[in-house]
Amino acid sequence: MSALRTPALELAELLEDTASPDCGALVVFGGTVRHHNEGRAVVALEYSAYAPLAEKLIAEIERDTCRRFGVSSCRIVHRIGKLKVGDAAIYAVVRAAHRREAFAAAQFAVDAVKHQVPIWKEEFFADGGRAFVTGCCISAEDAQLPHAHHDHAPVSARAGKHG
Amino acid sequence: MHVTVECWGVARRVTGAAAHALQLPAGSVVDDALTALTQRFPELRDELPRCAFACGDVLLSRDATLVEGATLVVLPPVSGG
Q1: Is B78's CB within 8 Å of A144's CB?
Q2: Domains detected in chain A
Q3: In Å, how far is A80's CA from the nearest CA of chain B?
């Protein structure tokens, strides 16, 4: 199933797909559109994605998250197109036997999406301006290493670039 | 040979279009395509050091060889989530 969605995201579908009687923990992260960024009033966002690579990387992040943290399931969906304030832009759902690994896995999965997946956010401001949000560089060097995405270090290193 | 460059994010904004057709010598690499594109759009030069490049679902280094009919995708810094 596609991880990139144009219609509004449906959390119920993700919860149903991942339901499992051997899991005692369910962690959901939702990222929603905020009405301000760096001191400017934001009225809308538009997300675009290079789908061939974005779908592949999200599937890899889901698998990698399950393997790395030993959680039962990890599902990520990201909306593309124009969103208004309050709309959900991303959901990450993790189910695990216990809460500790579920929280850690959800954090890892969301960070990985933000740092690696070719999705772009353009902000539309109340004053009429628009701008692409300054993001994280995708490193071709990292990506070309075999299984480089299994190593947490590059993700942590890139996280610092957010400032 | 004929190569199409597909631009995303700020690269699309700077070049004013999603795709650009280039005519390059056979055996050209990613860097050659970028040089040709920046001659057409000088303001793109400031963005490229922070961009990654792909063909299909595979990331390419700047010295990767392009083939006839290839689509080279320019991926600026990402900001999903």
Answers
A1: no
A2: 4-162 (3.90.1170.40)
A3: 9
Which top CATH class is B2-67?
Answer: alpha beta
b/e string for A22-51 if b means 16 or more Cβ within 10 A? ebebbbebebebeeeeeeeebebbebbbbe
Task: Say what the pLDDT of residue B69 is.
Answer: 97
pLDDT at B41 over 60: yes
Contacts of B78 in chain A (CB under 8 A): 114-120, 135-136, 138
| Structure tokens that stand for A113 in this block | 């999406």
- Look at the block and give the residue holding tokens 């949000």: A133
Four-point Cα dihedral A86, A25, A63, B55, nearest 10: 10
- Dump pLDDT digits (tens) for A41-84: 999 999 999 999 999 999 999 999 999 999 999 999 999 999 99
pLDDT digits 0-9 by tens, A84-130: 999 999 999 999 999 999 999 999 999 999 999 999 999 999 999 99
For residue A47, give the 3-state DSSP assignment: strand
What gap in Å lies between CA B78 and CA B18, rounded to an integer? 17
Q: Which H or E run includes A108?
A: helix A99-116
Q: Which residue of B has its CA nearest to A120?
A: B79
Contact A146, A75 (CB under 8 A): no
